[in-house]
Write a structure and sequence with these properties.
Chain lengths: 166, 166, 166, 166
């Protein structure tokens, strides 16, 4: 499969903290999600998981985006999924896109956390895992069942979905 | 998006019947799953859903497979996901593959029903929706995070996963 | 059954809002939860549901607690469950307790919202429904599988549970 | 709390087996359910869990019912919840009831397994835990939000609920 999944935080990975009553980060849900997807079951052609960051994407600074870029550059794999907050997913995608790596990098996230009822997260992860294996080298955003080029997408905040610019 | 999702039943779509204590079919879970995935939200580039069959794939006869083929042939869409039981997914894929339609057809299913805890169904659906949009025309099986050509796959029943033949 | 369930909001009833990324209130989850519990199925000895308030219990003012008291006073039922935020559950219980109604009133809530993975809400609701039917008239708090008199309980905020004072 | 929870199997505790496509028994879900209910959290007044049997209640023989009786007799606790299949819950309750132990024993179960979407199991467990602490010594069945004496209850198989005989 030759696939790397990089966690950076975002809505996808938020947990509810019963002591504070807020959503925050703990260990990523991704290892359990990949096992549930039967992607990482023992003996199967496993994908590699990397817990890079655990940030709300509104808290992401340039230095964090450089860390994501470096992870993608360093990766032995040519097919990469980056799980990222939706609010600045486009900004990180632009940094990755400008670097013109010879890899297929798909950013995805969720409108509702994986651990909350009616979440889109698990679907999006599946969609991104396929897109990262099948799309030609480049940087993409995968949300609401669509794949967008990194320079042709915006988040429609009123409707809670991603749309092509043109 | 130009995508058609065809339900045929299978483990993916089984419901628990509290009166009999068995798993059986009711209305497909797919319309709700696609809405949860935010694929079919109002105003978005919607995909088309078709409730064709509701069968355990062990109960599928040649006549049923011909119905699936006819649905694929008749479809205006060139990108098709067929949700199917895993036990004879390969047989249906072979019928569709032999017909050599100029469409991308991806069969998927689940090892655990969508409505049961820890199900792989929603991930598989996302994976198949991406593969149907991105893979070149042909017939494929999408399971456990991998895409297989219809003539290069078998179900490993001991391990509960799909594997390439070669 | 002769049971009334009064919703006032609290963690139990919080929904995730995908547009703001915060937890807030929409229609109460309680009607669906009671149906899932098979309490309100058609033809069964139904309980009565009352959507009174939808507040974080930290936002509850004396006037709101008086509304809860009035609902309990007015109710034809002698067995009442009040679903309430945990932070000021004790304060509302004290108001109800001081009123010395000849009814069994059980306040309950949740440490994790009903709609979030691993929530205690549904268990607590079941526990409270039994306690409201079985305990002698008085005002109680039902949390973490225990029933406390309204004047013998505190929330341990460090451990996230309710404890008896003595 | 002084409460014992005895698992005997039943619909409540069924798991989906992805290799056979059937519902069967593995380790009981009850320890995780009790932790989720925050009943057994560290430092709390814990209840005792006993994994006695893992049977479909249609497969329960007299010898199994004697085992349940012996567990109840031997238990140091005076408040006991027995998680049991619904089909012969009444038969086991009759055996326990005839023994006239000076304990409060509440049998409960589920119409839908704990691990399946929309299950009533977790509510029923909460209801039974309260009833076992609050009802006077005797043997009861707790289902669909009601508590029935062991000799005044039947399962209505058409409607999927328990009803009083008189």
């Amino acid at each position: 499969m030759n696939l790397r999944i990089i966690a950076t935080g975002g809505t996808f990975d938020k947990h509810y903290d019963p002591l504070t009553g807020t959503l925050s980060f703990r260990d990523s849900v991704l290892p359990a999600a990949l096992q549930r997807a039967r992607v990482t079951q023992e003996g199967a052609q496993a994908c590699v998981f990397e817990a890079l960051l655990a940030l709300d994407s509104l808290d992401m600074q340039d230095t964090h985006r450089q860390q994501v870029l470096q992870s993608c550059q360093r990766a032995a794999e040519h097919h990469i999924v980056v799980v990222h907050g939706t609010d600045t997913m486009r900004e990180t995608a632009a940094i990755l896109g400008s670097a013109q790596l010879d890899k297929t990098i798909v950013l995805t996230g969720a409108m509702v956390p994986y651990l909350i009822d009616d979440s889109d997260a698990f679907f999006n992860l599946g969609f991104a895992c396929a897109a990262a294996q099948l799309a030609k080298p480049g940087v993409y955003i995968a949300m609401n069942g669509q794949l967008f080029g990194w320079d042709n997408v915006k988040k429609n905040r009123e409707l809670g979905r991603f749309e092509a610019l043109r």
